[in-house]
Amino acid sequence: MSRPDLYCVFGHPIAHSRSPWIHARFAELSGERLRYEARLAPLDGFAAALRAFAAEGGRGCNVTVPFKAQAAQLADSRSERVARAGAANTLVLRDGAVHADNTDGLGLVADIEQGAGVLLAGRDVLLIGAGGAAAGALAPLLARGPRRLAICNRTPERAQALVASHQDLAKLSKTELLALDQQAPEADFDLIINASASSLAGAGVPVPVSVLRPGSLALDMMYGPPAQGFLDWAARHGASARDGLGMLVHQAAEAFALWRGVRPPAAQVLAELRALLAP
Q: What is the mean pLDDT of the chain?
């Protein structure tokens, strides 16, 4: 019998990654034969690590912090999502070429609409942050037709640049897309998404409580202990708090479908993962 196809996730650090468990479960449930590993790439050696992986017969990989921008630059071809975000989290290796895609935003949208049951059409959305995570999420969020999507960031110029680069998509979806002052947004929202590094850094919530409406959904892209401060803040002020575990599983399902042409049961795997991680 031939060896199972090889896939991996690159990052630095990477030991904490749940991706090997998720993709192993996807493979088991869908009947796909593959091996999926976590690989630590040197901070200055991602390109070499990717070449070595391809030489071993690797068929595809996920890419996490801090290599997403490099992954986009190294690819031979890129999806429109990657071109807009300047970042890739999924690479497809085929016939000696590397194709880059970004499934983060698709995973986020799937978790908001399917997992949390909040349809984005007609909603008011606040996106906190303007780095790679926010950039990867913006186009898929706009595609769902929110009424208004505001971006706030510690460095206002970065938020304004994201607005400018996505204004054409906002017009297509009839969404008001704007940048707001992070300290005084002067508006409240149905959905607040924390895509900033504040949770990872253990910093406080970067926006005032006035952004919340009664029953708002407040989602942090992080999960586990890093997300807890944001989740506690949201719950304390009457919002529905959600971590990024669902986004992680749904973006993995999108990557799996790109690689294998099979859509795995993301909701089942998310429920199993939550049970596995429960204290």
A: 95
